[in-house]
Design goal:
Layout: E1 5-6, H1 12-25, H2 44-63, E2 71-76, E3 81-85, H3 103-106, H4 110-117, E4 120-123, E5 137-144, E6 150-158, H5 164-192, H6 195-205, H7 210-217, H8 221-235, H9 240-249
Parallel strand pairs: 1-4
Antiparallel strand pairs: 2-3, 2-6, 4-5, 5-6
InterPro entries: GAF-like_dom_sf (IPR029016), Sig_transdc_resp-reg_C-effctor (IPR016032), Tscrpt_reg_LuxR_C (IPR000792), WH-like_DNA-bd_sf (IPR036388)
Pfam families: GerE (PF00196)
Domain HTH luxR-type: 189-251
């Protein structure tokens, strides 16, 4: 399992390059992160990601008692905050659900670096580009789905400062989120699939033809084809090969 943390001390060139990009874009350091209201739609998959994130925060907080004093947030793959967990909202420096943390809009921050570099990032107070974010230390870790596609980032922030050990906590939280997301997604798909469809899926994986499956489950060939198309739709695939591959990855067969 790869584990690396991008920090100013070890990756100064990345911070310097990002800083120059922000200046070139004309991003004002006195600006504040803004909310993208049009992007607040929460899809079923995003709801699962939020649920997985909250479950991971709960699991980590049982291990690390000090973790409860931190601000924990989840962004989507575009850097938009889609969930936020904190004890004291009044202490939050301009962060809220819907706020955009991508470099183009919020300058240098842990989330922007984690999304750009696909690695964990640790950004201390004065290393942030926007002045309003210089009250907090932040550690962000990218989150991937079971295909290796970027789905977002988790971030731990604290006004009292964070240590290098906190990066391990953030990394574990990201891995918990990925694991819980896969489990929840699998459960959701299983709930959508009828018992007969799970049978058809298993028999298809065994190499049975539609005619053979129809005889084995006492259904018409047209009915088998109907349920197969429904399986394709639920799994979001277009052919048998991809269907079997995805079903196997999700332990459905």
């Amino acid at each position: 399992m790869k584990y690396e943390v991008i920090k100013y001390d070890t990756h100064k060139h990345l911070f310097d390059e990002a800083w120059r990009r922000c200046i070139k874009r004309g991003l004002n350091q006195d600006a504040e992160p803004f909310m993208l209201v049009s992007d607040l739609y929460v899809s079923d998959e995003r709801k699962l990601l939020i649920k997985a994130f909250r479950k991971s925060v709960y699991e980590i907080s049982k291990i690390d008692g000090q973790f409860k004093s931190h601000i924990c947030l989840l962004t989507d793959e575009n850097g938009i905050i889609i969930d936020l967990i904190m004890n004291n909202k009044s202490s939050l420096p301009r962060l809220n659900i819907g706020v955009q943390l991508k470099e183009e809009f919020a300058g240098i921050n842990a989330v922007s670096i984690a999304l750009n570099e696909r690695e964990a990032a640790f950004v201390k107070k004065n290393e942030h580009y926007l002045k309003c974010l210089r009250k907090i230390d932040c550690i962000a870790v990218p989150v991937f789905d079971n295909k290796g596609q970027l789905t977002g980032a988790i971030d731990i922030s604290c006004m009292n400062g964070l240590t290098d050990e906190c990066a391990i906590t953030a990394f574990l939280m990201a891995k918990y989120t990925e694991y819980n997301f896969i489990l929840l997604k699998r459960e959701m798909i299983k709930e959508k699939l009828e018992e007969v469809e799970l049978k058809i899926l298993k028999l298809t994986a065994e190499g049975k033809t539609d005619e053979e499956i129809a005889k084995m489950i006492n259904r018409s060939i047209s009915n088998v084809k109907y349920h197969k198309n429904k399986i394709f739709e639920i799994l979001n695939v277009k052919n048998v090969k991809d269907c079997i591959y995805k079903a196997a990855k999700m332990d459905l067969i």
